[in-house]
Amino acid sequence: MYNIAIVAFVTIVLLLVSLASSTQGRRISPAPPCDFPAIYNFGDSNSDTGAISAAFWPTPSPYGTSYFGKPAGRNSDGRLIVDFIAEHLGLPYLSPYLDSIGTNFRHGANLATAGSTIIRQNESIFENGLSPFSLDIQTVQHYQFKTRTSELYHQARNPMEKNKLPRPQEFSRALYTFDIGQNDLATGFRKFSMPQLRAAIPDIVNQFAVAITDMLWASQEQRSCLVWAKANDQRHERLRRRLWVAGDVC
Ligand SMILES: *[C@@H]1O[C@H](CO)[C@@H](O)[C@H](O)[C@H]1NC(C)=O
């Protein structure tokens, strides 16, 4: 039985990751080694490795100059957290799902786009820079990516064709990372009063949980591993419970 691993960087929570927690306060056994064959990442500019750059405007200099030597599709001069995770796992940097050239999806794909939100905002990117690829759309894209991979893999006529594709059986062993939410807050500051924004946060968190649980159910996995964001808040406890599918924490 495989594990799906989820790292949720809920940027609306602000405090970060690495509280591995169990449902009934059980002590967690030591983590198994991180031998993930692929990464699937969802999010915004914190982890976009070139999607908006490919789909709209190339990221301008000086982004990328001090590490990559030129703009590298990231809204950052250096590497992003998702780049460091890939390096640590010995995997190549993630290609953006939306990029049409020079991509390699053998070890996963990046669905993140700069300006993404959890809640679909129905705004043009040309107004306030919000991406049309909100989290719900990213999960649909991932579903389509997975379905098409499976079809193409089974139609592939030779090993060379197969080697360009992810292994269908590796989806359930991949690491799934999420880094999204800050643009929901930024939009809230623009559109709402403070009390209205506070009142909207449970819905944002709920939508986040729905996107992840839908994806887990769609993958029909029996077990999941969580590295969970630490937060002193009932709402996040609720989210943690919703995210909990079954099984052990890795
Ligand atoms: C965007 O449009 C969808 C579909 O019409 C709607 O369900 C949703 O509430 C809208 N989002 C916002 C933030 O207005």
UniProtKB/TrEMBL annotation:
<keyword id="KW-0325">Glycoprotein</keyword>
<protein>
    <recommendedName>
        <fullName>GDSL esterase/lipase</fullName>
    </recommendedName>
</protein>
<comment type="similarity">
    <text>Belongs to the 'GDSL' lipolytic enzyme family.</text>
</comment>
<keyword id="KW-0732">Signal</keyword>
<dbReference type="InterPro" id="IPR001087">
    <property type="entry name" value="GDSL"/>
</dbReference>
<dbReference type="InterPro" id="IPR036514">
    <property type="entry name" value="SGNH_hydro_sf"/>
</dbReference>
<feature type="signal peptide">
    <location>
        <begin position="1"/>
        <end position="25"/>
    </location>
</feature>
<dbReference type="Pfam" id="PF00657">
    <property type="entry name" value="Lipase_GDSL"/>
</dbReference>
